[in-house]
Specification:
Helix content is 79%, strand content 0%. By secondary structure, the protein is an all-alpha fold. The protein has a domain at 41-104. The chain is flat, with a radius of gyration of 34 Å.
């Protein structure tokens, strides 16, 4: 019987320890967390998936013809805008890479001139 009481007291003490220790600890200094808002970033895949869902809902008679046409036109316009933005970005990176190549060629020319001047002296 005494053994049972001792075991019970140990179990209760252990439970109290588990409950009380988090309350008595000093709060850990939390580092600031940077939260990025990616809701503005819509991918072309998500637009296509939405258009697919709209079409399925329309064929299942969940959307009226008027709503379907309105939403379809809206999402197609968004898709066209995204594709245009992607095209502009790809043109910009292409022009940036050609600019870098031109600058590198100019640097090489200048270095060649400097080498010739050194050899001439």
């Amino acid at each position: 019987m005494i053994m049972g009481i001792i075991v019970s007291v140990l179990i209760v003490a252990f439970c109290l320890y588990l409950v009380v220790t988090p309350l008595l600890r000093e709060k850990d200094a939390q580092l600031p967390v940077e939260i990025t808002d990616d809701t503005d970033e819509i991918s072309i895949k998500s637009i296509y998936a939405t258009l697919n869902e709209l079409e399925m809902d329309y064929h299942m008679k969940k959307l009226s013809d008027e709503d379907y046409q309105k939403l379809k036109a809206q999402y197609e316009r968004i898709a066209a805008e995204l594709l245009e933005e992607q095209k502009q970005k790809s043109k910009k990176t292409t022009s940036d890479s050609s600019l870098v190549k031109e600058i590198e060629a100019e640097i090489e020319e200048e270095l060649a001139k400097l080498r010739k001047e050194r050899e001439g002296k």
